[in-house]
Amino acid sequence: MGEPSAPIPAQATRPRLPAVDEVLRSDVAAAALATHGRQPTTDAVRAVLDDLRRMIRDGATPVATAEAVLRAAEAKLAAAALPSQRRVFNLTGTVLHTNLGRAILAEEAVAAVVEAMRGPTSLEYDLGGGERGERDDHVRGLVRELTGAEDCIVVNNNAAAVLLVLATHSAGRETIVSRGELIEIGGAFRIPEIMKRAGARLVEVGTTNRTHPKDFREAIGPDTGLVMKVHTSNYVVTGFTKAVDGPELAEIAHAGGVPYVEDLGSGTLVDLAKWGLPHERTVSDVLGEGADLVTFSGDKLLGGPQAGFIAGRADLVRACQKNHLKRALRLDKLRLAALEATLRLYRDPDRLAERLPTLRYFTRTRTEIRARAEALKPAFAAALGPDWTVDIVDCASQIGSGALPVDRLASAALVAAPAGRQKGRALAHLSQRLRDLSVPVIGRIAEDRLWLDLRCLDDVAGFERLLGELARGTGVEAAP
Ligand SMILES: *Cc1c(COP(=O)(O)O)cnc(C)c1O
C-alpha cells in the first residue's frame, strides 16, 4: 500500500496551522480517537501537520483547519489499519492458487481452528489414559482408515515431508531417481537441492524422456538408501517416452532390499473420477502398488491447511518420527485441528463436494458458472461505463499448484474489453482499480482483455457490493 493521498484543497491566504491539541480536542476527533486510539491518532495528526508545513514552505496554500487536518489523519490511519495479508476474490481461474493461499478450508475446519485458538487443547495429551500423547495421533487414525497406510505423521508441508524422509532413510547414502522426474516446483522446491540438504546422494538414472527397469536394477548397490519416484506434478513429457511404473519399481526396490518411496505431490484421498473429474492416483492406490512410503500435501487436492504427510510402513514412519528434524518441522495445534476436521469429511464421500470448497469449485459446472455471470454482467458493465464492452466468454479453469497440470475445467468468465487504442494501459488501470477495492478482486489479463473466471466465486452478494464500490469510483477511463 502506498501513502494515501490526503485531499487537501487550496485556499487563498497563507494558512495558520492548528496545534496538535487543538485538532485532538475538536468534535470531529472523537470518532478517530475511539476507533484508532490516542497514540496512533496523535502520530497521524503530527504527520499531517508535517506534510502541511512542507507544502507551505514550498509555496502552497492548503486548507489547514482542524477538521481538514483530522480528515487527512483519518485517511492515513485507515490505510495503516489495513492488514497486509487480506482476503481477496480469486477470479484468476486457477483453483489452487499458490500465491493466493491454495485450498480454502471447509467450515468444519474453520470452526475447529477457532475452537483450538481460544483455549487449551488435548494436543499432546491422551484423554483416555490421562498421560502424555503424540500430537500426530489426532490424524494418524484417520489417515490409516482413509488410505490403508500402516502409520502416518504430518509436518509443515510436502517439501518438509520429502526432506524428512530423505534425511531419515538416505542420509550419507544414495537415492535413485529417474532423470525425467528431477522436478522443480514453484522455483524453490528442487529435488536435487532437497536431496543435498538432506545429506542424501542423488543417483540419476535413465534419460529425460526414457527410463527403463534395468536402469534402476543396475543402480541399486550396497550404498542405496531409497528408490524414489517423484510425481511430475507441473508438466508432462510426451512423445517417445518410457517411465517405470509404481508396481514394477516397488518390485525392483524390494528385490534389492531397499524401501521404495513415492512423492505424490497433490495427494488425493478419493478417486476424482467419481465426480467426473480426471482420474488421479490416490494415496491408497500408490500404497497398493507397493510403495513403502508416500509423501503428499495437505493444501492441494486434499483441500486442507498447509501440511505434508508421510504415510506408509510403520517402521519407516516411526524412524522419521524419531528424527530430531521432525521437531523443527512439526505442525501446531491450529493446523492439526484444521487437518483433522478436513480428514473427517472424507468419511462421508456423498457430501464431500458440498462441504469441501476445493471439490465444490472443481465440480461447479459451466452452466452454473455462466448463470452466475449472466446475473452479474449488467452490474459489471454499469460499473465500468461506456468505454468498455463486457461479454460472457467460455474459458478453461486450471486446477493449479501443479496438480493435474494438463487438465482443464470448462468454465465461463466475465470479460471486459477496452474501447480505446491504449488497451494495455486501460487494462493495467482497471486491474489496479479492482485490486484497490475494499476486498481486492484478482483476475487475469489475456488477449487484450480482462478475464474474471467465476468458478471460485462463493460470496456473490459481497462481489455485487464491490461492483457498487467500483461504480461509485472515479470512473475507469479506457479511451486514450
Ligand atoms: C507440490 C509438490 C511438492 C511441494 O509440496 P508443498 O506442500 O508445496 O511443500 C513436492 N513434490 C511434488 C511432486 C509436488 O507436486
Automatic annotation (TrEMBL):
Subcellular location: Cytoplasm
GO cellular component, as recorded: cytoplasm
Domain L-seryl-tRNA selenium transferase N-terminal: 16-53
In-chain residues carrying the UniProt-annotated modification N6-(pyridoxal phosphate)lysine: 300
E.C. no: 2.9.1.1
Any one GO molecular function term: L-seryl-tRNA(Sec) selenium transferase activity
Annotated Gene3D superfamilies: 3.90.1150.180, Type I PLP-dependent aspartate aminotransferase-like (Major domain)
UniProt GO BP: conversion of seryl-tRNAsec to selenocys-tRNAsec; selenocysteine incorporation
Top class in the EC scheme: transferase
Keyword NAD in annotation: no
Associated pathway: Aminoacyl-tRNA biosynthesis; selenocysteinyl-tRNA(Sec) biosynthesis; selenocysteinyl-tRNA(Sec) from L-seryl-tRNA(Sec) (bacterial route): step 1/1
Keyword Transferase on entry: yes
Keyword line: Cytoplasm, Protein biosynthesis, Pyridoxal phosphate, Selenium, Transferase
Pfam families, sorted: Se-cys_synth_N, SelA
Cofactor field: pyridoxal 5'-phosphate
Major localisation: cytoplasm
Catalytic activity: L-seryl-tRNA(Sec) + selenophosphate + H(+) = L-selenocysteinyl-tRNA(Sec) + phosphate
Membership in a protein family: Belongs to the SelA family.
Function, in words: Converts seryl-tRNA(Sec) to selenocysteinyl-tRNA(Sec) required for selenoprotein biosynthesis.
Record-given protein name: L-seryl-tRNA(Sec) selenium transferase
Organism: Methyloraptor flagellatus
